[in-house]
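Aim 2 progress. For RQC P-site tRNA stabilizing factor, the working sequence is reproduced below.
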Amino acid sequence: MRLDKFLKVSRIIKRRPVAKEVADKGRIQINGILAKSSSNVKIGDQVKIQFGNKILEIEVLELRDSTKKEDAEKMYQIISEKRVENSDNLD
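Predicted structure tokens for this construct:
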């Protein structure tokens, strides 16, 4: 399954164009390798996503073409979720 579609169906990122933009800006890795929106995601893959000041690491558990809101979280398991300090701050 394409990375952008997985992120949309699993509701990690709500809209596919946004998922594509995040991936194409180099903010997503699959198993430690920089990923594009067209990269394939397989069960067992570890995906690391950087959203602004947050880094989310997940493991892919299921692949589905569509899912209900309450079942979306069953598609992945959160490994870690970290806030990143902005290094530009001089506080």
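The CA atoms of residues 62 and 83 lie 26 Å apart. This observation will guide construct design in the next reporting period.
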